[in-house]
Amino acid sequence: MRNFDELITKTRSQKSLSRLVIAAAEDIHAIEAAITAKKLSLAEPLYVGDETKIRKIFNDLNLIQPESEFVFNVPDPKEASRKAVELVHQGKADFLMKGAVDSKIYLGAVVDKQSGLSTERLMSHFSILEIPGYHKLIAPVDGGMVPYPDLEQKKDIIQNSVDVFHKLGYAEPKVAVLACTEKVNPKMPETLDAEALTQMNKNGEICGCIIEGPVSYDCAMSREIADEKGYNSKISGDVDILVAPNIHAGNIMGKIFTVTCQAKMAGIIVGAGCPIVMTSRASSAEEKLLSIALASIVAR
Questions:
Q1: Residue 280: its pLDDT value, please?
Q2: What is the Cα–Cα distance from 78 to 104, expressed in whole angstroms?
Q3: Are 58 and 65 in contact (CB under 8 A)?
Q4: Sequence-distant (≥ 6) Cβ neighbours of residue 169 within 8 angstroms
Q5: Domains of the chain and CATH, by start
Q6: pLDDT at 300
């Protein structure tokens, strides 16, 4: 998939619209993104929150009011988050989006042991970017959810990401487990994890992808540099997923792409019972819309 235009086209080609439920939907930016998504046939929104405030936003934006069946009056943000999760369990919604609610409260409803959406899989953040100068979409993970992943957590992060790429139509996405070197060094635990993950892939423990690591960023992204360094690779210059050693590296890498390189981005939380859209306060309207489009595909 070369760019987000192709992702949007794929989302719109689905036989039916995925249903998006916004928790604490009295948020102007969330409503704007949801309405645009509906106009573009990317998703059908449901609104859970303070109905009076929700309808006031629609009035202020000169939008047609949603029918009563699409609005659930739950003014308390904590209860609104729980109601949104309940709608997913009931099959009335396919994925979640955060509105005017604190992230901790929102995720608390998602991970609640009795009524949440947790699975046996670790929840992780998946971001995918359209970077000027790179020939296709690429996913740096995890820059937003798991601070210092151990080996098993990195395995889940990779499998979560690979599952998304399968939904996007990839048969065997190419995964680079990043470090500062291509050599395994016992003093650098990141290289040991990378080697172990590569071996898991070879043994069939992590399926549906090609994993290489440890590998430096330059060798992963450039076939020419890999050849110059004598790094024998099947994926250099054509990587789909970049696995960062920790949240700091992943977050910095993502922000370099978006802030300095002017990359476009979509991001969702995966590994739960449904995709979760939880963009930051600084996220653009375009990022919110692209994240909805991505979640809509993954939800199917």
A1: 76
A2: 10
A3: yes
A4: 1, 10
A5: 4-118+272-299 (3.40.50.10950), 124-264 (3.40.718.10)
A6: 85
